[in-house]
């Protein structure tokens, strides 16, 4: 029997370590097909995109089977702490309406910079502290700042979600040394969020020791989104297995993989 290796966020357990977003797909059919092929169990939705008064007819919400998938509302589009808090409460209301009564998850994004879309560290910390006191399980999107990550963990965040590179850029995982420090020092799951563009980068994130990755653009904007969703599914699983297996220690010089014993005997012949 395969050894279980669940992803645990707060008091919730998941088998998949790939979180998938719902934006930028060509159509709703592609989106739902990608969610299925990715094997994800957590789906993130931008609350700002939704009209909560019409969620029963909203296509994006209505097309997803919320009996099988866990909603991760996000505060994308919030430029201030106050906006993020308001969207978080709307997100929690949506979770309840969809029947996920115990779902207090919120992916916290506070982005005041319209050009580079880097998260606002001070606004994020303030919003996280307030929301945690209100019973939310906060998953904050952050810069690759180890000290900020520690502060967010100390106030009770359920995960740390450092960016790999700027949102939607597909530039891969940058500032690797800082990410390694965040992973090393964190006692809560570290989830690489933003910038992953290929399956090899998803694998690498997992090999670094990240507990999960969140991917949207790399799947939605691929030439064949459904095949890319499958690739990301396999990549994340492979990266996790490789991390658990333990990488060999790199050597400075070549090391023969063939046995040296017996060579003297062959020479004597």
Describe this protein's structure.
- The protein is of the alpha/beta class and 269 residues long.
- The chain has one domain: Aldolase class I (TIM Barrel).
- It has 10 helices and 10 strands.
- The protein has a 5-stranded parallel beta sheet. A 3-stranded parallel beta sheet has the order 6-7-8.
- The longest helix is centred in the C-terminal third of the chain and has 21 residues.
- The protein is globular.
- The protein starts with 6 loop residues before the first strand and ends with a helix.
- The model has no long low-confidence stretch (mean pLDDT 90).
Outline the secondary-structure elements:
Elements (H helix, E strand, L loop, with lengths): L6 E3 L2 E3 L3 E4 L6 H11 L3 E5 L12 H5 L6 E5 L6 H17 L7 E4 L12 H13 L3 E6 L3 H9 L6 E2 L13 H10 L5 E3 L5 H9 L4 E4 L1 H4 L4 H21 L17 H6 L1
Parallel strand pairs: 3-4, 3-10, 4-5, 6-7, 7-8, 9-10
Antiparallel strand pairs: 1-2
Helix pairs in contact: 1-9, 3-4, 5-6, 7-9
EC number: 2.8.1.10
Subunit structure: Homotetramer. Forms heterodimers with either ThiH or ThiS.
Organism: Sargassum thunbergii
Describe the structure concisely for a colleague.
This protein has 269 residues and is an alpha/beta fold. 39% of the residues lie in helices and 14% in strands.
């Amino acid at each position: 029997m395969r050894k279980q290796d669940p992803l645990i966020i707060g008091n919730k357990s998941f088998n998949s370590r790939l979180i998938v977003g719902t934006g930028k797909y060509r159509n709703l059919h592609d989106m739902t097909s990608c969610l299925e092929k990715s094997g994800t169990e957590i789906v993130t939705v931008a609350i700002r995109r939704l009209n909560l008064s019409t969620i029963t007819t909203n296509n994006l919400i209505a097309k997803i089977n919320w009996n099988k998938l866990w909603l991760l509302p996000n505060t994308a589009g919030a430029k201030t702490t106050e906006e993020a808090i308001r969207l978080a409460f709307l997100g929690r209301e949506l979770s309840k309406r969809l029947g996920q009564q115990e779902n207090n998850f919120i992916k916290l994004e506070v982005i005041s910079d319209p050009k580079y879309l880097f998260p606002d560290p001070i606004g994020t910390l303030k919003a996280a502290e307030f929301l945690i006191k209100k019973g939310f399980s906060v998953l904050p999107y952050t810069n690759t700042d180890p000290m900020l990550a520690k502060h967010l963990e100390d106030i009770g965040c359920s995960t740390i979600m450092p960016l790999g590179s700027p949102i939607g850029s597909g530039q891969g995982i940058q500032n690797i040394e800082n990410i390694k420090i965040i992973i090393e020092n964190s006692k809560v799951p570290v989830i690489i969020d933003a910038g992953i563009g290929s399956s090899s980068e998803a694998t690498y994130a997992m090999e670094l020791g990240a507990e999960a990755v969140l991917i949207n653009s790399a799947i939605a904007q691929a030439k064949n989104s459904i095949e890319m969703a499958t690739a990301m599914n396999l990549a994340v699983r492979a990266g996790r297995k490789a991390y658990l297996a333990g990488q060999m220690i790199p050597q400075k010089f070549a090391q023969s993989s063939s046995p040296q014993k017996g060579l003297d005997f062959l020479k004597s012949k």
